[in-house]
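The step that takes the researchers longest sounds almost clerical: writing a folded protein down as plain text. Below is the pair of lines this work produces for a single protein:

——
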Amino acid sequence: MFFLGSEANREIFSVGNSVATNALEFGVDVGHIDVTLHLGFPGSVASLWQQAGRSGRREKPSLAVYVAFQGPLDQYFMKFPKKLFRCPIECYHIDAQNQQV
């Protein structure tokens, strides 16, 4: 993680850039995001598509950029990108009988 000084922060945010965590994947409609930058695989295909879907709202064009790290999953998707785009969205199941749920 990089920490920038206050001068660098002012410059970054003065030109209309935004920085966010993966919290945007939970359905917040910001509406003016043109580009999403994904630093490493987020852990699930569903998360990646949710995050990428934050840009290009209201029928505007968008761009999603996936920057791979050295980890095995990132490197796998860089070697076989079609696997990422053809991979089904994961299904989550809740066991209603589980006492901890």
Remarks:
- The chain has four helices and two strands.
